[in-house]
Amino acid sequence: MAETKLRIKLLVDTGGKRVLFAEAGKDCVDFHFFILSLPLSTLICLLGKQQMVGSLGNLYQSFEALDESYIQPNITKDILLNPADALPGGYSVPLLSLKKAPEASTVKNFYSCHRGCNYVSDDPQAICPNNRHAISRGMTFVAPPQLIEKQDQYCSSGGGGGFVKEVVTYIVMDDLVVQPMSTISSITLLNKFNINNVSALEEKVVDLGMNEAVKLLMASLVSNTILTHVFLNGDSSLVIMVD
Q1: Are strands 6-13 and 201-208 parallel, antiparallel or unpaired?
Q2: Residues 86, 194: Cα–Cα separation, whole Å
Q3: What is the pTM of this model?
Q4: Please, what is the end-to-end C-alpha distance for the chain in angstroms?
């Protein structure tokens, strides 16, 4: 399957060797806002345990290496190491979605104890705390109508899912401030950056793929010049480890 790539247009100050801002469509802005929903463990998986700031990578690695004999019988490591998506089905966002979002559905599988105990689980391998037998008798859960209606309304609304509407082009600043684009806002920004020599400005069209997305995510943890680092500084390293 071909890698998903988004195309964005950068306005570069060649004299100052910096990205002033990017012109981005809905998909790119959806990706930026999607970062806010990522569970901490997902960030560690994306960036790598050795690249995390401080001791979070050590904490992740400790739980990953912990022998199963120390884990509660009704707990799997994936609950923390590979948590489910924070967003419900229907939120289609490119790039950092590591797992396919679940489709909206009225049916979900649950299980009860064969001995008639009042314990229910969504994992057929869970152990009943009352008699230590597997909670594996199949049951069927039907979602409440209002939840189904909200998912249907979201999926059928304009813009193809995501977070923002596809009604304008957006500006993404070098420090990831996002705002709708207009002629007035562009002129205001040029004045803000004290651009006196317009000939020093250059448009640069770049692709934002998985590799750039991870670099952008990493840079956003420690820098206020994210676009400049990812798209102008090339292979120069960004150190995010701290003592």
Answers
A1: antiparallel
A2: 41
A3: 0.66
A4: 40
